[in-house]
Protein: ABC-type nitrate/sulfonate/bicarbonate transport system permease component
Amino acid sequence: MTSPRRGNPARSGGTALLGAVGLAGLLLVIELAPRLGLVDERYLPPASRIAAALAEEAGTPAFWTALTDTLIAWSVGLAIAVGAAVLAGIVIGSIPVLRSLTASTIEFLRPIPSVALIPLAVLMYGTELGSTLLLVCYAAFWQVLVQVLYGVADVDPVAFETARSFRFSAWGRIRHVLWPTALPYVFTGVRLAASVALVLAITAELVIGSPGLGKEIAVAQASEAVPTMYALIVVTGVLGVIINLLARTGERRLLAWHQSVRGEVTV
Structure:
């Protein structure tokens, strides 16, 4: 007999409270350090000035346009990478000979830093959206592909052969045997890829100058608008936290049936 493990509300509330206290402490340090002369205000303005700059930026259409550009590059690049990686992972992982043939190629290409492709991206697409998509897709693709390959390898061979003996079609074996086993791995890959995709989107905009928050950060830095620069950096950080929370929430909801999420214990 099994029963779901329940989270401790008091512990969760205490963790959230400690997190809020830590954030408040960080803001206090950033506020006091430049005012007390511990750091130069030209390089680190007080938190109040950063907040004021953030409020000012939020009132301009240019800020929301840049935010939209970043989210479009992130979401489109992530969607392309996830779709391609899931398809490639299932095909490669399901055919042992193909898995052996591609293993060395995957291990060679996967460690190549996406930023090393910036010159190629600029040559191909200039400062347009395509350059950002190239970097985002390349970085996110490997995060998902590797997890899908692990998921396919984790399929119970007895279950797979049983489905074959019951004359399940190839699609039926994938749908009813392979996919349920690989799905938790897929979600892990998507969660990792979502964060990596945002990092590469901001990096491409910052270095290449393609439209988005990264470009606005570079413009603020070049014009010595330091509070605005920090305000935009804060926005990218908040965006990363939101994406991670949404990915974790989606994973828990869509995998509520899986034991790893339910956290079942024997009683």
User: Anything to note?
Assistant: The two ends are 6 Å apart (CA to CA). Confidence is low (pLDDT under 50) at residues 1-6. The longest helix spans residues 170-208.
